[in-house]
Amino acid sequence: MSDQDRLYQPQNAKDAMRFVQKLFNQYNQAPLTEELIAYHQKLLAYLTNDVTTEVQKQANSEQAEKLTGMIEAMQDWLKIRLSGQPYAGKMQHFKFVPDSQQAHFKTRTIKGGKKANNLRTSARH
């Protein structure tokens, strides 16, 4: 298998932004290392150079605004993490969403599972 078959090839700018967002959400809580900073800067360079030119070719102003917001959020992540603070949130829809604003779903366990089919027979002994 050639390298070109193994590497991810985005179809358009939005696809590339989704892919970078997915990668960012995977490592944003990881311990800060030199390799992680280099990888983060590589993704930022990809967004600022390649994806920005693709968005400009498409002449989509809404997508351009989302891209600049995404780049700013990723730059803020680096500033926050370098200052020693935790990054309390993730990126959703190409912007930062704090943990406090994310939807939380409560689970409730129902004991017994199934309803008794014949209550009369179970009451008599």
TrEMBL record:
Top-rank lineage group of the source organism: Bacteria
Stated name of the protein: Uncharacterized protein
The organism of origin for this protein: Latilactobacillus curvatus JCM 1096 = DSM 20019
